[in-house]
Automatic annotation (TrEMBL):
<dbReference type="GO" id="GO:0043565">
    <property type="term" value="F:sequence-specific DNA binding"/>
</dbReference>
<dbReference type="Pfam" id="PF12833">
    <property type="entry name" value="HTH_18"/>
</dbReference>
<feature type="domain" description="HTH araC/xylS-type">
    <location>
        <begin position="217"/>
        <end position="315"/>
    </location>
</feature>
<keyword id="KW-0805">Transcription regulation</keyword>
<dbReference type="GO" id="GO:0003700">
    <property type="term" value="F:DNA-binding transcription factor activity"/>
</dbReference>
<dbReference type="Pfam" id="PF01965">
    <property type="entry name" value="DJ-1_PfpI"/>
</dbReference>
<dbReference type="InterPro" id="IPR009057">
    <property type="entry name" value="Homeodomain-like_sf"/>
</dbReference>
<dbReference type="InterPro" id="IPR018060">
    <property type="entry name" value="HTH_AraC"/>
</dbReference>
<protein>
    <submittedName>
        <fullName>Helix-turn-helix domain-containing protein</fullName>
    </submittedName>
</protein>
<keyword id="KW-0804">Transcription</keyword>
<dbReference type="InterPro" id="IPR002818">
    <property type="entry name" value="DJ-1/PfpI"/>
</dbReference>
<dbReference type="InterPro" id="IPR052158">
    <property type="entry name" value="INH-QAR"/>
</dbReference>
<dbReference type="InterPro" id="IPR029062">
    <property type="entry name" value="Class_I_gatase-like"/>
</dbReference>
């Protein structure tokens, strides 16, 4: 159980008119499963019930003044057609203006449109539901929209794609705040995968391949079981019984990124787990996950999350004290 001495991180969810009930409940369900590490409250602009996108209203116990106390603010999707057409209502702009400096701002699905309409995403990367991405880009040309990813972490502002990508983003935040062990525990309790491969590309409507067409899933599974080997794209293509060009195209269609980028992502993710749960040296971990050297692991980990292996281990190490820190 989490220490009762530490103040829980306060997450405030802002429900706007036309809010989507499923996504509204994601922060409470995910953060609320982390054994008291987070306190989640939900508010409307004036503390009164809000109309949902379904056939019921939602009663809330807080008004927008709760945003002043937030460490993280979450904006779930709502009906955004009016915002795209007429801009952000002044009451919403006023509410967002009270968020304190240093607080994280998180959007789920089309909640990104609310953030963009407030001018907070200008010259920043972001994503939203793929079905709104083109309209989003036209309405807010200063935003660097990436329609292919499940979420974008730009430090103090994070955006996610549709529906369950909000779960992915919340787990990502827990992983960054408390490490993979806690995030994996929360994922198990919520009965969701702790880490999903790829991006939105795999969910975008596209022609269905013939039933006999081979996919890349078996090759990906083989790669995950052999990360300690110097797996190449040629190896993966051979496993899938495809030419390299066909495999690369099919892989990107299914996963939303190149095989090389996916392999690095999986190796870094496995390295993070080993840093948290073992006393292995950086060089040993590099070999276990398929990086040629400890220097290569250091480089890729820094590119992925901006810290060194030693700094990451000191932050998230569980159990006994770190052994052999000088090897880092």
């Amino acid at each position: 159980m989490y220490s009762e001495v530490a103040r829980p991180h306060r997450v405030v969810v802002l429900a706007l008119d036309g809010v989507y009930p499923f996504e509204l409940g994601i922060p409470n369900r995910v953060f609320g499963t982390a054994d008291g590490r987070y306190e989640v409250v939900t508010c409307s602009l004036d503390g009164r019930p809000v109309r949902s996108s379904s056939d019921f209203d939602i009663a809330l116990a807080h008004d927008a003044s709760a945003l002043e106390t937030a460490d993280t603010v979450v904006i779930p999707p709502c009906e955004v057609v009016t915002i795209l057409k007429d801009g952000l209502p002044q009451a919403v702009s006023d509410a967002l203006a009270v968020i304190r400096p240093g607080a994280r701002l998180v959007s789920i699905c089309t909640g990104a449109i609310v953030v963009a309409a407030a001018g907070l995403l200008d010259d920043r990367p972001a994503t939203t539901h793929w079905n709104f991405a083109e309209r989003f880009g036209r309405a807010y040309p200063k935003v660097r929209v990436d329609p292919n990813v499940l979420y974008v972490d730009d430090g103090d502002i994070l955006t996610s794609a549709g529906a369950t990508a909000g779960v992915d983003l919340c787990l990502h935040l827990i992983r960054n705040d408390h490490g993979s062990e806690v995030a994996n525990m929360v994922a198990r309790r919520c009965v969701v995968p702790p880490w999903r491969e790829g991006g939105q590309a795999q969910f975008i409507e596209q022609p269905v391949p013939p039933p006999a067409a081979a996919g890349t899933a078996a090759a990906r599974q083989w790669a995950l079981e052999n990360l300690h080997q110097p797996v190449t794209m040629a190896d993966l293509a051979d496993r899938a019984r495809m030419s390299g060009r066909t495999f690369a195209r099919r892989f990107r269609d299914e996963v939303g990124m190149s095989p090389g980028r996916w392999l690095i992502q999986q190796r870094v993710f496995r390295a993070r787990e080993l840093l948290e749960t073992t006393d292995l040296s950086v060089d040993r971990i590099a070999g276990e996950v398929g990086f040629a050297t400890g220097a290569s692991l250091r480089q890729h980990l820094h590119e992925a999350i901006g810290v060194s292996p030693l700094a990451y281990r000191r932050t998230f190490r569980t159990g006994s004290a770190v052994v052999g820190a000088a090897s880092h």
